[in-house]
Automatic annotation (TrEMBL):
GO terms for molecular function: alcohol dehydrogenase (NAD+) activity; metal ion binding. InterPro entries: ADH-like_C, ADH-like_N, ER, GroES-like_sf, NAD(P)-bd_dom_sf. Residues 13-356 form the Enoyl reductase (ER) domain. This is Enoyl reductase (ER) domain-containing protein. It comes from Tremella mesenterica (Jelly fungus). Keywords: Metal-binding, Oxidoreductase, Zinc. Its cofactor is Zn(2+).
Amino acid sequence: MSIPTTMRAAKVGVDKHYYDLVTLPVPQPKGYECLLKIGAAGFCHTDTMVLEGVFGGNKVIGSHEPSGTVVALGEDAERDERVKLGQRVAGMLKRDVCFECSDCKLVDWIYCQKGLNSGLDIDGFFSEYAIVDSRFCATLPDNMSFEQAAPLTCAGLTIYKAIKVAVEKKGILPGKGILAISGLGALGHLGTQMAKAMGYTTIGIDARPGPISLANEMKHKPDLTIDASKVNVEKAKEMINDLRPKGYFGWEGVDAIIMCADAVASQRYAINLLVPHGLMVIVAQPPTYTFEFRDFIFKDISVIASMHGNEIQLQECVDLCAKEGIRTETTTFTLDQHKEMCDAIHQDGWKGKAVMVFE
Ligand SMILES: [Zn+2]
Ligand SMILES: [Zn+2]
C-alpha cells in the first residue's frame, strides 16, 4: 500500500468554533504505534471544548475517536503482531502511556498521567492518516462499518464501562434490579441499547422529545422512557414499579442511574429517583454536581465516577454492538464539510452523533 507524503487535516484554529483545513506531512509510526488510513472519526462534545480552548488551547488536529485500516507499523508493533497491515481497527485516544506509574501498575493505563490524549494534547483523527497505539486497538468484525466503529471508541466505550460498573457495584442481574440512564444523547442512546442487549431492565430518561424517540426507535429499546419535563418523580416511580417482578419487596425507584446528562435539573431528579442505598454513576462533565448531606447520610446513596474503558473493554463493546445490531445514530460529513459539522450539532432537533468519513 503506497502512503503519500502529505495529508489533509482539520486542525483547531484561531476561531473558537471551527477548524482550519491544513496540509501536513503524514506521520511515521515508531515503537508500538501504527499508522491508520482513517476510515471515520467521531466528533465528540469534548471536541467542542477543545475548540473553545477549555483544555489549554492546543492547536491540534481534532477528534479522539478513530477507526481505519492499518497501513504502517512501528518496529515494536510489527514484532508484537497485535495488529497487522491491512487490518480494520478501532483505536484509542491515549498514546505514550508509561506502564510504570502507580495508575498504570495498580489500576489501569487509562488513568496514566504521563499518557497524551489525541485530539486534546496531540494531533487527533480528523485527518487522512493518523497514529494510534497498536496495543489499544480493537479489531472490527466484517459487518461493522468504520462509521459505526468510530463512535464506539469514546462514547460507546464510556457508556459500556459505566454499565459494567453500575451493574457490578450494585449487583444488578438480568431480571433483578433496575438500571436507568439519564440523558439519551450520543452516550445514552447507545447505553440503553447495550443494557437491554445485555438483559438488564433499563429505563431511559431525558427532558427532550427527540432523544426519547431516538432511544425508542432502536432494535433494543429501553423497557420504559421517562420525559422528565412532563413526569414528576412520584409518577415516574409508579411507572418503574410496574416493571418489578411480582412479589417484589423493596423500595420504589431505580437501583442505579448513570448520568449522561449535563442539565442541573437532571441531577436532583436522578437522586430523588434512586432507591435508598442506590448508586449514581457519573459520566457527564457539567461544571458542578450538587448533593446534600441528606442524600448520603440518611438516604445512603453512593456516587462514583467512571471514565472510558481500556482496550479489553473496547473489544467487548465492539463485539457486543456487532453481534446485537446496536447502532449509533450518525450523521456523516466529509473533511471539506468540517464547518457544516461544527454547526450541525448546535441546531435544534440535533440527535445522535456527527462522524467525519474518509474515502
Ligand atoms: Zn469523546
Ligand atoms: Zn503510567
